[in-house]
Sequence to fold (486 residues):
Amino acid sequence: MFAALSEKHEHKKVLPDLEGAENGVVMRFAPNPSGPLHIGHARAAALNDAYVKQYGGRYNLRIEDTDPKRVDPEAYEMVIEDLKWLGLGITDTVTQSDRLHLYYEICSQLIGRGGAYVCTCDNEQFRELKNKKIACPCRAQSVETNFELWDKMLTHGFKEGEASVRIKTDLNNPDPAMRDFPAFRILDAPAHPKVIAHVYPLMNFSVVADDHLLGVTHVIRGKDHIANTRRQRYIYDHFGWKVPVYRHYGRMGIEGVVLSTSQMRLGINDGTYTGWDDIRLGTLRALARRGISPEAVRNAMLAIGIGDTDISFSWDNLYAENRKIVDPVANRYFFVHDPVTAQIEGMQPHTAHAMLHPGDAARGTRTLEFTGTVLIPKSEISPDVTMLRLKDLFNVKISWNGSIPSFTYAGDSLADARVAKAHIVQWLPAQDTIACTILTPEGEIAGACEPAVRSELGKVIQFERVGFVKIDAVKDSGVVAYYTHK
RNA sequence: GCUGCUAUAGUGUAGUCCGGCCAAUCAUGCGGGCCUUUCACGCCCGCGACUGGGGUUCGAAUCCCCAUAGCAGCACCA
Fold:
C-alpha cells in the first residue's frame, strides 16, 4: 500500500531512448571558452549528462578553443567551475588547442585520400564560383601539389587569408553552404593564449576528428548545428568512419536576462554589471548567487528535453523545481519590510519562540525577546486595521486617534485572532534587529530581519510571507539578500 | 531568396513511428477550498490545447496534400 503511494512520487521524467545506446554511450559537451556558462549551455550539458547516466559510458568535456579571437583565457577555469557546480559526471577533459598536431595529421591523411585540397583562391572569388556550382582551380590539383601547399601552410609560407584547406563535398548540393566548406585557415593574429600556431582547424573539422578520436557515439546539440552535421558527414564519408547518432533540439528563448557574452563583458567593463554573477545575467553563477540549486537547473532542463520545436524557457518552471529542493531545507526567519515602530502597552517582557522550519520541529527554534517595542511592516498598518496577530507572540489591538495608531496587548488566543480575521504578521523586537536589503531584479527592498540571519551566509532561507532569499553578504551594517523566488 | 526543420492548454511535456484503448498525460501557472501561528509546504476541486483547410478511412492529434506561422543554416565562428 505504501509502496503504491510512494511510487507515484518517484515518477521520474524519462528521456526518449537513443538509438544504438543499449551498450553504453560516449558523449560530449563542447563549449567555447569565451565566458562563463549560461542557461543555454546548461541544456546541452545536462541532457548529455543524463544520457550518459542513463546508459552508462563516458562523458567528455571538450574545450573548443580553435578560434583565438573567441578565447577568453579566464574562461577555461570558469567553464570548469560552472560544470562542477552543475554537478555533471564528466569523465574526461580535452582541450582542442592541445591537439592541433592531431588535426594536422588527420588532415594529411584526408589530403592523401583526395578528400581535401589546399585552396589559394581569394575568398570572394571562391564564393562566386561556389554559388555557380563551379569548381575552383585548386580543386583539380594533384595530391602531391596539395601536400606541398599544405606543407607550405604549416611552415608559414602563406599569410592569413592566402590559403585554406577545403573539404571536397558535392558542388551540386542544393545548399551552397555544403559546397567545399573550409577545414583549416591561417590566422596571424591574435596570438592564441595557450599555444603558438598559425594554422587552425575550423570547427567542422576538429569536431569530426575529436568525435572520432574520442569514440563519441551520440551527440545532442542545438539545431543551429544541423547544417554542420551535414557538412561533417562528408568528412566521415571520406574516411569511412562510423557516424555518431545526432539529436538536435530546438531553440530555447530565454527572457529577462542577458545571455550574450559580448554584451555581458561590455556591461561588466563599463560598470553596468557587478561581474559575471550579476543577477541580471543568465549565467549559471548568477543563478547560483540568487539561490537556484544546480539540481533544479538540471531537472528543469531534463523536463524540457530534446524536442526539436522551439520553446520559451519558463522561469516559473525552474522556480518550481527549485522550490521543491529548497523548501525542505531553508530555515524560516522574519523580515519586516519598511519597518514601523510600535510600542505595545499592557504586556510584560517575555521570550517568543518561533520554529526554524514548520515541518521539522527537531531543527529547533529562534528566540525573540519581546520588551515592549516591536517593528512591524508598514503595509500592515492602516486605519481600517484594528487587530493584528504578531506571529508566535500575541494579538495586538490597534486604536486610531485620527491617523495616529496606538497598540495594546489583546491576549494570546490564536482563536481570537482567527475570529477577528487578523493578519498574522512578522515582527521584530525593536532592540534586536539588523538591517536587511533584499535585492530583486526589479530593485531593492529595504527592511530589517532577525540577527540570527547572519549565521545563514551563503544559504537560502525563507523570509516568511516574503519568499526565498539567499544571504549574499553579512556586514556590520546588516545583511544583503538576493531574492530567489516566492 | 535558397536549403532544411517544426507546429498539443499561459509555459514545458506525453501521445504521433505501428490510426481506434486520447471527449488527449504529467508538471508548472491561474482560480477556489482544506490544512496551517507564512501569502510557503502538503492535500482536494476546477480552468485550459491537438495552427487552419482539404483528402484517405468505418474511424485521424496520429497518414497524405495545401496554406499559414515560427525557427535554424546559408562565415576562412563555435
